[in-house]
Design a protein that fits this description.
Elements: H1 3-6, H2 14-22, H3 31-52, H4 69-72, E1 89-93, H5 97-106, E2 110-114, H6 129-137, E3 140-143, H7 153-160, E4 172-174, H8 207-224, H9 229-253, E5 261-264, H10 270-276, E6 279-283, H11 294-304, E7 313-316, H12 323-332, E8 336-338, H13 352-367
Parallel strand pairs: 1-2, 1-3, 3-4, 5-6, 5-7, 7-8
Helix pairs in contact: 2-6, 5-8, 6-7, 8-9, 9-13, 11-12
Amino acid sequence: MSAENQGTTRTQSPEESTARLALQLVVEVSEHEVAAEDHVERSTRNAVADVIDDEVHRGAESVDHPQPVSHTVQRGRGQVVRQLLHGSFRVDAAPSPLDHVQVGVGGEHVETYSATTALQDPHYIQARPSLIAQVRKADLVLCSGAQLEIGWLPMLLSKANNPRVLPGKDGFLEASSLVRRLDVPDSVDRAQGDMHPQGNPHIQMNPHNIARVAQALGERLALLDPDNASGYRENTAEFQGRWQAAIAAWEERARPLAGTRVVCHHKSWVYLEDWLGLEEVATLEPVPGIPPTAAHLSGLLSELGTDGSGADVIIRSPFQSPKPSEWLHERTGIPAVMLPLTVGGSDQAKDLFSLFDDILERLLAARSGVPQ
């Protein structure tokens, strides 16, 4: 960007940003708009650092060290509003699987906005003015919690000045508090990397957790919007009926996957592993949140063997670089597969039901040696 453009700032109004997102337009952002966004991002990062006290620890020389997704995703492109329904009750979600639960439970009575897309790492989202405007208008904020959004959600809540949706209020619902959290550490040390003291936050990878969140969400919507309470209860019951039938079919289909040994890029899949009986034998990251290093990958190659006898599948998310997975696959022959971590993470994962359909299809194909 030129020095001239760096000196120019023009902040879009919340109305402009919301209109563009709600209509899901694919637009080009001008250089002046990019300069304004960069200025806001720098200010937000400095404020978050003061408030959060450097909660996210990053570092180490890496084989491929991508920048935070907000910098690598092309600005102004992509679907940001996951679902937008006409209605008067506003629900804002922090990672995108949750907004699809809201659509199933809230139906025509809710307007849903997601703060993230399926191709973004939810750890690293910028607290932009357009997001602040959405939180300011929300009746309910639904987040994963367990500090998944600690780098940006506290800033949104603080700047939005909406007391209805603060933690502890009925307008704030933390999904991970509703389920059994896995990987809760006995102690937290910076040497352990980007650890979550309250446990692993990626709860959406076990469909039984989705059912618990949907039930609690239906009850919360009925409390906050009593005029439509009967509709929320009917929608919840209908969703749960279809969801439980789908779980039974998935578990039958997934029986051959029990005992599959997996190497994961990041510890995003512990709930999927717990549900399906997968065995995690290694991670591509040397410690959570630290990108794969040459030394660590070389160690994995020695550990897993050049014949690939040490693992069955290598797994990564769509927003993670494929290079470490491909490097290990080329030297071991272990199949490498990208699994969608949420709705929209693949072309096939169009809703919650097809999300798990696609995950199982990809895992079964990789287990059978079908090229991905």
